[in-house]
Design a protein that fits this description.
By secondary structure, the protein is α+β, with helices and mostly antiparallel strands. The protein has 9 helices and 23 strands. Helices cover 17% and strands 29% of the residues.
Length: 411
């Protein structure tokens, strides 16, 4: 067997987790290094790969978060490479303040204390004994879109523009059940949620959110939470900024006013014009992003092309998505593909007959409260050039005569 054949055999074995069987099949097929990985010349002439403990993606498909190796900072979801609305668990965006905490579920505890009648301590088994619910909701980092707002570049992809949002099927227990069990006192109007990571991140949350739709979740897309998403348990506040959905949750303290902790004063207070600031601006605003066509795509010919993307709102359901192909001069309703769930991503599509001339593609979302995604100018007039969070203004993609698609940050 040649050196090339051995290299291909090893790569195929790792990719498909089929070990020696995969290597033997590829060697039998006589593949060389320049051939497509794990693909024999005629797959009908050879048995396929055997079953394996964990399946992998096709060796031709390589979606990845980026950047990697970050202890304090983000890693973006590749929105342009996904279909449907559910984000695969291993591609859910990350935002850490002290790295992803690795916690032994047998040692994990959750304490509920403070202004309660009965302070409680739960282990994971205790928590799972409560009636559970399964719901689909997005999580979005409060700073999603910051780079595109401050330093837009033509070669930015949807991942780099808005990849700090992901949509998941979550399973857990309503926080209201636990608060009733603890007996929250009437004067307790806030609670402090604290994580068990190296940053010990904490946020103050109104009790009204806990009594509405807040969850303590341990399940994600049919399996336990991934470590990077808060295993074994995280707080989920549907529609609210991601940093408030504290990961690796270990403590909930009932209090009568915001704690004014480090993480909600130094980071998540948003400067506004006139020397003012927004604080506790939890809800994520109505927003959309076109994921195709987008950089670095190049349209191969004039004719019909689907304009596809995602829309979401922290205030409820998306009611309407419009698409413009002429830079906002005219708008057409896109097809909003169901089911349309509250505080969750929806997929939209608009068929566009490109005439080969330069074009500017934009999308605009409206949610069920009537909130409409603003232009950049309208957004900036209210929030100012120095705003740091909740970037929901309209962005788009410029299509040149040769079909090249680039990011347009000033729509």
């Amino acid at each position: 067997m040649s050196d090339d054949s051995r290299r291909i055999s090893r790569r195929a074995a790792i990719t498909t987790t089929a070990g020696a069987v995969g290597a033997a099949l590829l060697a039998r097929a006589g593949l060389a290094a320049q051939d497509a990985p794990a693909a024999p010349p005629d797959p009908t002439k050879l048995p396929g790969m055997p079953t394996s403990a964990v399946s992998g993606r096709s060796p031709f498909v390589h979606p990845e978060r980026a950047p990697t190796g970050v202890l304090s900072g983000p890693s973006f979801t590749p929105l342009q490479e996904l279909t449907g609305t559910i984000t695969p668990s291993d591609l859910h965006f990350e935002r850490h303040h002290g790295g992803a905490a690795v916690i032994d579920p047998q040692k994990w505890k959750l304490v509920i204390h403070g202004m309660v009648e009965h302070p409680l301590t739960f282990d994971l088994e205790d928590l799972k004994r409560f009636p559970s619910v399964t719901r689909v909701h997005f999580i979005e980092c409060a700073g999603n879109g910051r780079n595109a707002y401050r330093t837009p570049k033509p070669d930015m992809t949807p991942q780099q523009v808005d990849g700090l949002t992901s949509n998941t099927e979550w399973t857990g227990v309503p926080l209201s059940l636990l608060f009733r069990e603890a007996g929250v006192k009437p004067k307790a109007t806030w609670f402090l949620a604290e994580g068990g990571d190296a940053a010990v991140l904490s946020r103050s949350i109104p009790v009204t959110k806990a009594l509405d739709d807040a969850l303590l979740v341990w399940g994600q897309n049919g399996e336990p939470l991934r470590v990077q998403n808060g295993y074994p348990v995280r707080l989920l506040l549907p529609g609210w900024e991601g940093n408030a959905c504290v990961k690796w949750l270990r403590r909930l303290e009932l209090i009568d006013q915001p704690n004014m902790s480090r993480d909600e004063t130094s980071k998540y207070t948003d400067p506004l014009p006139g020397g003012k600031a927004r604080q506790f601006s939890f809800e994520m605003d109505a927003k959309s992003v076109i994921t195709s066509p987008a950089a670095p795509t190049k349209l191969s010919r004039a004719g019909w092309w689907p304009v596809r993307g995602l829309a979401w709102s922290g205030r409820g359901r998306i009611a309407r998505v419009e698409v413009s192909t002429d830079g906002g001069k005219t708008w057409a309703d896109a097809e909003v593909q169901g089911p349309v769930q509250p505080k969750a991503h929806v997929r939209f599509q608009h068929m566009w007959n490109w005439d080969g001339k330069p074009a500017l593609l934009l999308s605009r979302a409206t949610d069920e409260t009537g909130a409409v995604q603003p232009t950049r100018a309208a957004f900036q007039a209210v929030r100012g050039v120095g705003t740091d969070f909740h970037f929901n203004y309209i962005r788009g993609w410029r299509v040149d005569r040769d079909g090249a698609v680039t990011f347009e940050g000033a729509a």
